[in-house]
Design brief:
With 220 residues, the protein is an alpha/beta fold. Helices cover 39% and strands 15% of the residues. It is built from 8 helices and 5 strands, in the order αααααβββαβαβα. β4, α7 and β5 form a beta-alpha-beta unit. The mean pLDDT is 83.
Length: 220
């Protein structure tokens, strides 16, 4: 209005119901919001399959006091969205090469092995091994395993919790329930890169023997 007409600033503000002080001093985003927004953008690029809810979980786990609504507002202001999955691309978490463990319970490796019964019905086996001792910590067999954390809690009652767990990028290991469990128990989650099973060589070696000696012999 000021650019297109000759009316005064006072008159223009009165017509649109805006105070002159607000016109002269537009609201600025708080410095805290700017820092939080920057961190949200960083997390969104690191974990491309995480929406605002799981990003909010990560922020709270790092000590930031923030609710989902505020994260959603900053998430949208940054023009972020969950990127569409292409093929078998998965989210990005901590990725480190395989290293030699020094103690028991330093790292547990986990993976799923699938097979079918004589009736044709599919089964899944959750195998858990200790990277140091190379022992099989547990094997859970079911038609569909959605209770990974319950299996780990059951094992921990007898031998304690590991310092870290190593998995692939399967949905059972990247769910909010699994992330919350790892944070609550102080267990570091190590994720191997897609297409690089050698980063989880201990469990891959065990699963190969498990298939040959158990599944192929129709023990189940």
């Amino acid at each position: 209005m000021l650019e297109a007409t000759s009316i005064s600033e006072r008159r223009a503000c009165a017509l649109v119901g805006l105070s002159r002080d607000s016109w002269r001093h537009p609201p600025q985003r708080a410095q805290h919001d700017q820092a939080t927004s920057q961190r949200i953008v960083e997390l969104a690029h690191e974990r491309r399959r995480f929406g605002y809810r799981r990003i909010a979980d990560l922020l709270r786990a790092a000590g930031t006091k923030i609710n989902d609504k505020r994260v959603y507002r900053l998430y949208k202001l940054a023009d972020l969205s969950v990127r569409k999955r292409r093929g078998k691309q998965r989210l990005k978490l901590e990725r480190v090469p395989l290293h030699e463990c020094q103690t028991i319970n330093e790292v547990w490796s986990m993976d799923f092995v699938s097979d079918s019964l004589a009736s044709g019905r599919r089964i899944k086996c959750l195998t858990v091994t200790d990277d140091f001792s190379h022992e099989c910590v547990d094997i859970a067999v079911d038609h569909g395993i959605e209770y990974v954390v319950r299996v780990l809690d059951r094992v921990a009652r007898f031998r304690g919790y590991p310092q870290a767990v190593r998995t692939d990028q399967g949905p059972e290991f990247t769910s909010r329930a699994f992330m919350a469990w790892a944070q609550a128990k102080g267990v570091r989650h190590i994720l191997n890169q897609p297409g690089k099973p050698t980063q989880n060589a201990y469990i891959e070696s065990f699963n190969g023997k498990f298939r040959d000696e158990c599944l192929n012999e129709h023990w189940f």
